[in-house]
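job 3f2a | input accepted
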Amino acid sequence: MLAYTDKILNRLNWIINKAANHLLQKHLIMNTPLNIQIIWLFVLALPIACIAWTVTHEEVFREPRDYCVRRCRDSKMVATRKFFYLFTCEYCFSHYVTIGMLVITQYHLLFGDWRGYLVGGFALVFVANVYMSLFALIRTDLKKVRLEAEQEEGKHDSMK
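job 3f2a | predicted structure (160 res):
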């Protein structure tokens, strides 16, 4: 009887250990250390911010962006207006770029399953938008300094 009970306990212990290892490795936590996940978060947000900013602001994509603005403004259907708006708003567009990056890199944050994609996706969008906001502030400040310098130079030239 003791051998039979021992055999059942060993089998239950094996099942519990197997289930616990499966949950820990696959669904609750990532095998990647948190500091590495955070580094990847800040690194992956850079190309997301670059792509979103370039498509929605830079001169290279001016013609397609102008077309999207016209379609967004002039369309009678709400779905069409919303679809074309996402190509003119860096915040909106960064969500779609992030989805593409998640598919390419399979980046997870904190969790190893679908929750890791969800948390990682929103974290990437947040960090990318912080990067774009900082870039916009720096760019505006540089433009202001350049205009002030040109005005000062114009005043200096007119005094001669």
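job 3f2a | The two ends are 111 Å apart (CA to CA).
job 3f2a | closed
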